[in-house]
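Model it.
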Amino acid sequence: MKHLCAILMLVAGDAAAETVVSNRTIRPQQIITSQDVRMEQQIIQGAYDNMEHVLGQEAKHIIYPGRAIMIGSIGTPALVERNQIVELIFESGGLRIVAEGKALGRGAAGERIRVMNSDSRTVLFGEIHPDGSIVVSN
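Modeled.
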């Protein structure tokens, strides 16, 4: 009897579970809005079950209508676009050098991308900061 009650509770809990599903085609690099997604009464392993985790995120690849929004298919929106002019910052000890550069990739805050110093044409790696500047590592 205990096992039957436990199974019924699990089934009842699953029946109330919801999954975030796309309303329309969501293109790569598109920011997801409330018009793009809805909640459906279904359980899909590896899919988002909370609308708040999806809204404002950027699609990493195409998501078709009626498909669940899977974990890993969306991410933080990019701050820096490829070929964008960016501020490069190098700090070491008390020395701080600021230069202009060009992003050789796109990315969000916290990601590492390749950049090129506009003056020396040297290709470097740096981390994107929330203000869009890139802190170069040696």
